[in-house]
Amino acid sequence: KNQVEQSPQSLIILEGKNCTLQCNYTVSPFSNLRWYKQDTGRGPVSLTIMTFSENTKSNGRYTATLDADTKQSSLHITASQLSDSASYICVVSERDSGGYQKVTFGTGTKLQVIP
Amino acid sequence: DVKVTQSSRYLVKRTGEKVFLECVQDMDHENMFWYRQDPGLGLRLIYFSYDVKMKEKGDIPEGYSVSREKKERFSLILESASTNQTSMYLCASSRQLNYGYTFGSGTRLTVV
After folding, report:
1. Taking a C-beta distance cutoff of 8 angstroms, is the pair B99, B92 a contact?
2. Where are the alpha helices (H) located in chain B, listed in sequence order?
3. What is the pLDDT of residues A28-80, one digit of tens each?
4. Which residues lie across from A110 on neighbouring strands?
5. Cα-atom radius of gyration of chain B, to the nearest Å?
6. What pLDDT does residue A31 have?
7. A32, A41, A43: residue with CB nearest B104
8. SS (H, E, C) chain B
9. SS3 for A82?
């Protein structure tokens, strides 16, 4: 069964500090990996998407890395801000020969940035 | 700004009621999805649709049905609501099946 595991489950950091969130997956065959940010009570919003050939992708202060060999991804947040407080969800898509890509969601890392 | 709009942010229904959750997108996307999100379980796919009047079961379709009469609208129906259907429901759409999703803001449904 395809799985996506994220760590840590939750994290508290001081404003201005950096942090790194981890995502390990067993999805195969792999198609792409996305990181989403979900504010409390809102829907997820896409941050980055990476395919097999990409090993890093940035979106402002967010940088995602992908190691397709070890099936690991990380999301690094630089100079955190209070508005970064949210859940971060790793989503991995499986390539399907029929065209539909099965998508597996991680359970998320809840980040709280405190002043 | 592209949008996926869910008709209700919060909903409280009684056990046994028929419940309709509406979702509308303005991006002319072919694909639309309904997920439920529960603590510790992540998002789980209920149903998806890749064209008007087409629907496919996701991982947890039991107790739910869907309707897609128009391209922009995808409805989730709980035929007879039960307390274990208390959850956050998220609608999403995508241009292609391997493309990123745009999510709605979610509907938090409580069944009492």
Report:
1. no
2. none
3. 888 899 999 999 989 999 999 998 888 999 999 999 999 999 999 999 999 99
4. A10, A87
5. 13
6. 87
7. A43
8. CCCEEECCCEEEECCCCCEEECEEECCCCCEEEEEEEECCCEEEEEEEECCCCCCEECCCCCCEEEEEEECCEEEEEECCCCHHHCEEEEEEEECCCCCCCEECCCEEEEEC
9. helix
Q: pLDDT (tens digit, 9 = 90+) per residue, A9-25? A: 999 999 999 999 999 99
Residues of B in contact with A5 (CB under 8 A): none
CA atoms lying within 13 Å on the CB side of residue B11: 26
Nearest CA in chain A to B5: A43
Helix (H) or strand (E) holding A43: none
Which of A43, A49, A101 is opposite residue B106, by nearest beta carbon?
A43
**Which residue's structure tokens are 């942090």?**
A19
Chain B residue numbers touching A103 (CB-CB < 8 A)? 45
Total Cβ atoms within 10 A of residue A103: 26
Of A93 and B100, the structure prediction assigns the larger pLDDT to A93
DSSP state of A84: G
Q: How far from chain centre, in Å, is Cα B84?
A: 16
The answer to whether B41 contacts chain A (CB < 8 Å) is: yes
Residues of A in contact with B108 (CB under 8 A): 41
